[in-house]
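Hi R.,

As promised on Friday, here is the backbone we talked about, encoded as structure tokens. Could you run it through your design pipeline when you get a chance and send me back a sequence?
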């Protein structure tokens, strides 16, 4: 996995929680603020260490275990700002940096963020899902068309299973995006962009 080619300090950044997170924390009191931010920093440092060592599987598994959507959004935010993922060819870059396994692990996290009540988290979830859609839609769509008659072709069957999991999450995001279009504002705009993108790759 070539994700390790990203800068070694890619996740070694100062994390600033969204305004909504800060409002909640400040209402909870100073001690709660310190404890929450300290825990988030510890989580991010652990994930960052695995990330920079090229252990994407470990980093994504740790993210999945987090109860802090803000930390997940922070990691994705840094990821999207690194490795050329802010360019017009972000999908192609992501396809080089990530594997199908990575996509299958990242998409449920993106859907989780999109179901958050925090608008910045929702926006991040949609952005990550759209990036992965552009990166892997062709592979996933092709796999859906394959009829695997040879049960002994374990590699092909495993690949098809990963594609099916990705497809399920992409469609879950499509359902979420459909509801978000009724919200108005930036979320609705990003949701419509996702719906347009997925409709170009999948008809059902």
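Update: got your reply. Pasting your designed sequence below so it's all in one thread:
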């Amino acid at each position: 996995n070539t994700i390790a080619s990203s800068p070694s300090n890619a996740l070694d950044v100062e994390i600033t929680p969204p305004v909504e997170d800060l409002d909640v924390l400040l209402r909870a009191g100073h001690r709660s603020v310190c404890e929450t931010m300290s825990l988030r920093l510890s989580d991010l440092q652990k994930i960052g260490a695995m990330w920079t060592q090229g252990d994407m599987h470990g980093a994504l598994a740790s993210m999945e275990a987090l109860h802090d959507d803000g930390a997940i959004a922070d990691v994705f935010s840094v990821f999207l700002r690194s490795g050329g993922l802010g360019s017009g060819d972000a999908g192609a870059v992501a396809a080089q940096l990530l594997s199908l396994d990575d996509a299958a692990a990242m998409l449920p996290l993106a859907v989780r963020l999109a179901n958050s009540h925090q608008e910045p988290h929702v926006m991040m979830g949609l952005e990550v899902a759209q990036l992965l859609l552009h990166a892997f839609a062709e592979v996933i769509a092709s796999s859906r068309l394959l009829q695997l008659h040879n049960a002994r072709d374990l590699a092909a069957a495993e690949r098809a299973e990963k594609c099916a999991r990705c497809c399920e999450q992409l469609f879950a995001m499509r359902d979420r995006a459909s509801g978000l279009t009724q919200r108005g504002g930036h979320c609705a705009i990003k949701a419509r962009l996702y719906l347009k993108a997925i409709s170009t790759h999948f008809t059902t």
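One thing I noticed while checking it: Residues 1-16 have pLDDT under 50 and may be disordered.

Thanks again,
M.
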